[in-house]
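Q: Probable protein kinase UbiB, please. Structure only.
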Amino acid sequence: MSFARLFRIFSTFLQFGLDKLIPARFLPWYAKVFRMCFFWIGNKHKDKTPAQRFRLAIESLGPVFIKFGQMLSTRRDLLPEDFANELALLQDQVEPFSGEQAEKIVRKAIGESLYNEHFAEFDTNPLASASIAQVHAASMTLDGETHQIVVKVLRPGIEKIIRADIKLMSVIASLVAKWLPDGKRLRPVEVVKEYERTIIDELDLMREGANAIQLKRNFSQGDASDKILYVPEVYSKFCHKNVLVMERIYGIGVGEVEKLKSLNVNMKVLADRGVEVFFTQVFRDSFFHADMHPGNVFVDVTNPDDPTWIAIDCGIVGTLNREDKRYLAENFVAFFNRDYRKVAELHVDSGWVPANTSVDEFEFAIRTVCEPIFNKPLAEISFGQVLVNLFNTARRFNMEVQPQLVLLQKTLLYIEGLGRQLYPQLDLWQTAKPYLESWVKEQMGVKAVFEKIKDNLPFWNEKLPEIPDLVYDYLRVGKQAHETQKELINQALAKQDSQHKQLLNSVIGAGFVVSAALLAVAKLPIIAAITGVVGGVFVIKALTASTRD
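A: Structure for Probable protein kinase UbiB:
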C-alpha cells in the first residue's frame, strides 16, 4: 500500500471538509486526536454544499476515483439525491497519453508484420481520452478493401494504478462503514467490491470485443424490427487484452438534442425505440448493454424519419436468467396495475426477500411508497425511480443485493433519462406496458408450453430409445431394493425379539439375585444359594445374548 497516496487521499478529504460529514459525537476520542494532528489542513471550500465538496474531492483524486464516482451516481438507492445528482456531473475526460506510445502498444500487441500488412494509417492524435483507455482513428486494408476503424488502447500501467487505488478505497470504505452514522446502510465495502468487479472486467478489451459481437448478433437477425440498434463490427483478428479494433461509426451523440432537432429527426420515434431497445435486450435476449450513458450512444440520422441507435463501449453488460426475467416482467405488470399484493408475493417467491417475510407488511410498505407516485400523471412518473423505490423498500425487508438487478436499474435510469431528454412527453409506462404484457403472455401461455416442448424434442428424441432399458433397470433395482428392505426388516424384528428376551432374562436374573440376598439375610443359606444359582443362570443367558448381538 502506498502511504504517500493514502496521505494524498486523506488530505484531500480534509481540504474539502469531508470529515465534517461525520458528526463529532460519533467519533471516539482517538479519532479526534488524530484529526487534530493535521490541524494545518482545513476546509478550503466552506462556501460549497457537502455534495459539491464530495464531487470536487473525487475529481481531484484522478481518473480511478472519477470512474468510481460515476458508478456511485447510479446507486440512487444508497445516496441522498443531492449527492447522486452532483456525482452525475463527473466528466471522464482526462489528459491523453502520448499517441506515439499508443501506436507502439498497438504494434506490440498485434505484431509488427500483421500491423505493417494491414494498417495503412494511425492518427496519433486521440479522438477521445478517458480514465482507462483512449481511442485513435486509423485505416486498415482487409480483403482488398480499405476500412475506417478506431483503435482503443488501454493506458499503460493502468491496472497497477487501479488495483492500488482499490486497496485504498477498501480501507476508506471500512472506516466509513464503522464511523459514519449511516455507514451500515450505505454498505460502502460492498459498493467498492462491486466497483472492483466492474472496472477489472473493463481492463480486458477482449471481453469488451466479445460482448460487442454478441450484442451485434442479437440485433442482426434479419428482422426489420432488429434494425433499431446498430453495433459497430469488431475485428477480432487484431484484438488483444489491451487493444480493441473496431469499425468507425459516424453518428450524432444522443445528447446533442438541438442538432438532432435541426436535422428534423423524428424524436418521438427515437425515444420510443430507446425503450424498445432496452426491453428487447432484457426480455428477449437476456443480454443487455449496462453502460448506455450519452457518451456511449449515438444516432444514425441517414433517414431522419427512421433513426437508428448506435451503441459503443460494451465493457459492461448484464444478463438475466429465465426466472429473473419472468419475475421482473410480472413485477412490472403488477406495478402497472397497482397490484402491490402480487409484487410482494413475487419478491418472496423469487427468493429476493426471506421466505419468512410477512407478505401483508411488505405489501403495505410497497403501497406506502408507490401510491403517492401514482397520483401524478403517468407521463410524469419515472419508471427508474419506481424501481429504485421498490428495491429500497425490499432492502428494508432484508432483500439481498442482486448484482444483475443493480445493472438493470442503472441501465433503465440511463435509457429513461435519454428518452425524456429527446422527447419530454415520453410516456414510458404506456410504451412499455403492452410489450411486457405480451412477453408475459408468450412466456406463460399455451404457445409457450408448445415452444418448450418443441425445444426439448431433440433431447427426448435422443433419450427415447433408452427408455425401455431405463424402465427395466428401474423395476429390477426396485425389486432388489424390496427384497433387501424385507431382509432388513426381518433382521430388525429378530434383533428386537432378542433384545426383548435379553431384557426379560436380565430382569428375572436380577430378581433372583435380589431374592437370594434377602434370603441370606434371613439366614436361609440353602434356599439363598439355590435362588442365587438360578438368578446367575438368567444373568449369564442375558450376557450371552448381548455378546452375540
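A: Brief note, in case it's useful. The chain has four domains: 1-92, 93-248, 253-438, 467-548.
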